[in-house]
Target: 6,7-dimethyl-8-ribityllumazine synthase
Amino acid sequence: MPGPTVIVRIHSGRYGAVVATGLIVNGGIYRHEFVAQAVINGLMQVQLDSPA
Model:
């Protein structure tokens, strides 16, 4: 979760885009699929909640 300083900077209007990256390692169990889906859902929700 980004801190308050990051959120203020994002909403300042100085940035044209925000890029998020991540790495989920498949350790041979199914848990990585749930984590990946949760991350994707979270990123999509941030996009929908952000002003255009």
